[in-house]
Design a protein that fits this description.
By secondary structure, the protein is α/β, with parallel strands linked by helices. It has six helices and eleven strands.
Length: about 220
């Protein structure tokens, strides 16, 4: 089963409130985004957004250039239906984050909660970093959250990677400047807890990235 088929199966068989990563509002992400990009005209992309309410909350806060990417058309459809008439204010992108043809330097801020930790192959992680460097403006903002070192080893039937903050930052390379990191304890709908590691960094001023290292 490929990535798209897997996630279509998840979103077709579970309600938005039944997936383990569900939370009514992504409060940690919202705080980091508002700190990093206070200008409501900033171009923001939420990758692997699924059915999350982050897009709703960004619109509520006045952000005017919001894009949402997910590999599952079903998940995007749920979010669009929830937004109703406001869905037209969002740029909806359906595809795999490591291969999607992003416009060069289109975004001021890249947000990812719980996608990167599914990339268990080093080649996929390197491709992801190249995508960030391609899509985000030089000196732009990158917020990535993964399972922490005490988080689960599997999620939705898939193996995952776990990171402490500096190991997560190392995946991006020294050219990405680490601004802040923090830990969140997420409470799942089923009553369990999951440790998340958040890293907020800025993209390098150099625009070419190869395998996670800055090429100058």
């Amino acid at each position: 089963m490929d990535t798209r088929q897997h996630w279509e199966g998840v979103y077709r068989t579970k309600l938005p409130t039944e997936v383990s990563w569900y939370t009514p509002h992504l409060d940690v992400s919202l705080r980091l985004i508002e700190h990093a990009a206070p200008n409501r005209g900033a171009a923001i992309i939420d990758v692997g957004a699924g059915e999350a309410t982050l897009v709703d909350d960004l619109l509520d806060r006045g952000y005017r250039d919001v894009s949402v990417l997910d590999v599952s058309a079903t998940a995007l459809g749920v979010a669009q239906a929830r937004l109703g008439g406001r869905a037209g204010a969002v740029n909806w992108l359906c595809g795999d984050v490591i291969s999607y043809p992003f416009a060069r330097h289109r975004y001021d801020l890249w947000h990812d909660r719980a996608v990167f930790h599914f990339l268990t192959a080093g080649t996929d992680r390197a491709a992801y970093v190249r995508q960030v460097a391609e899509a985000v403006t030089p000196g732009g903002h990158v917020i990535v959250a993964t399972f922490g070192p005490e988080g689960p080893v599997k999620c939705s039937g898939l193996d995952v990677m776990r990171y402490e903050a500096h190991a997560l930052h190392d995946e991006f390379g020294a050219g990405f400047r680490l601004v802040r990191h923090l830990t969140e304890i997420h409470h799942t709908p089923g009553g369990a807890t999951q440790q998340f590691t958040y890293c907020y960094c800025k993209t390098p001023s150099a625009t070419r990235i190869r395998g996670g290292a800055t090429a100058r």
